[in-house]
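Repro:
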Amino acid sequence: MTRGRPKPAQPGPRLAVRAVILDAGRLLIVNAWPGQVSDLWCAPGGGVERGASLPDNLRREVFEETGLAIRVGAPCLVNEFHDPQSVFHQVDVYFHARVIGRVRIDGHADPEGVVNRHRWVTESELRALRFKPDTLPDIAFGVPGRVLYDPLEVIVR
C-alpha cells in the first residue's frame, strides 16, 4: 500500500460472449468494424450487461447483430485479449449455439452499425481469411466437447 492519495482505480476486464454457430458444415462469422475498415472476422456476440445470464446476453447480441434466434449450448472457449497502448482488456466466453428457425440473414442490419457483414464459411474458407481468435477453427470444426483457453494476446485491427 502506498502512502498519500490512493491510486486511481483501473477498470477491470470487459466481459463478452460469442457464439460458435454451425449450419450444414458452415460457421457463421461477422465483421465488426464500422465502415469496413478491417478485414478481420470473428464469431458474433458482444458485451455482457449486468443482471442477465451469459446465455441471455448471447441470445440478445446474436439477434441484434444477425437477426437470428439461437439456442445456447455448452461453453467451448475462453479467450483474452488486450491493448497494450490503453487499459483495454477483454475476456470472451464462447458457447456452441444452434439457430432456431430461419438461417437466412440477408438484409439484416445491426442497429448499432458495428457489424457490417456476415458470412457462412467452411473450415477451409475460414482458414483463408484473417480471423480471431486463432483457435476459432479448432472450436468450430474440431473435436466436440473440448473446452479451450486462448491466452492473453494483443488486440489486432
